[in-house]
User: Fold this.
Amino acid sequence: MKSLMRRRPSPAMIVALVALFVSLSGVSYGVATGFIDSREIKNNEVRSIDIRNNEVRTRDLRNNEVRGIDIRNSTVQGRDIGLNTVTGEDVREDTLQKVPSALLADSATSAGSADDVKTLKIIPRTVQPEAASGALVLLEHGPFTLRAECRPNTTATSAQITLQTSEDDSGARSEETNAPVFDASNGEQIMAVIQDAAGGERTMDFRHITAIAPSGKTLTGEFILLPDAAANTCTFAGHAALGG
Assistant:
């Protein structure tokens, strides 16, 4: 026994024992001190079950490292996206469908009929004296001729608009005429009459006039009539959409 105690361990034995102690107690030491770094964790060994729920935060993620493959499909919702941040460049256009109003537009008849409107006729302000030689032609379209005339009488000045057709079975309507059907032989049809009494308050009004011919020619518009008994004049203006 005394001979065994006299024998001291060699330096190599001491180094080996220290290494063995460190290898056996390293992790336990880290746990005891409350400090474990990546050196104590084997690569690819930490799993989802080892992480407490709701403990991984933004500061734990490297910027620009979370990608589409890391997000479950159909889990990103509107509340996860900032307001007014999705733009046209973010949307694949060939996947979009028409909104309901656009679907209805495919069958809208007004769009087709708009092709038939060839001209918007603007009638500028035109002043005609009483008893002028001949009526004023406001517009001509197909078989239709729309004229204006300023007629005097003993008590008032009358601003008048008439319509004439060269095509039988034409139709027209205004406040003064209730949808008459007339022929070329019927001559001018009175479509609007506004009177201004002498010495009284001046009068102005407008009339909505529409007309259609069997050939498909149409006109529809609004016309202003302003007779002036004091000046012995009548003023006319308006506009009309001409079709067919």
